[in-house]
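User: Okay, second chain of the day. Same drill as before: sequence in, structure tokens out.
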Amino acid sequence: MNIGKSENTIVALDIINPFNKTVKMDGLKKLIERINECNAYDKVGFAFYDLEECVKNDVMPLTEYVYNWLKHLDSLRGTKKLINFTMDLS
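Assistant: Same drill. Structure tokens below.
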């Protein structure tokens, strides 16, 4: 399932607040849901499962851990296009 342009792009700023360096749980939840909807969970790295558990249990993950995972996700060209994710809009 390719979400493509019918859905809004999820940007890293939707997940990490750059001003206070906190994780936005709603944004992280949205990204995890989209990865599951696209059946891309086996392509995005083992950190996905840790973060999925954090979202399920309403536990705030470490910002650096989330940021490093987002950087990894951004490096996966086909997968990031499939789930409509980008680090920034430039």
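Residues 44 and 72 are 8 Å apart (CA to CA).

User: Thanks, on to the next one.
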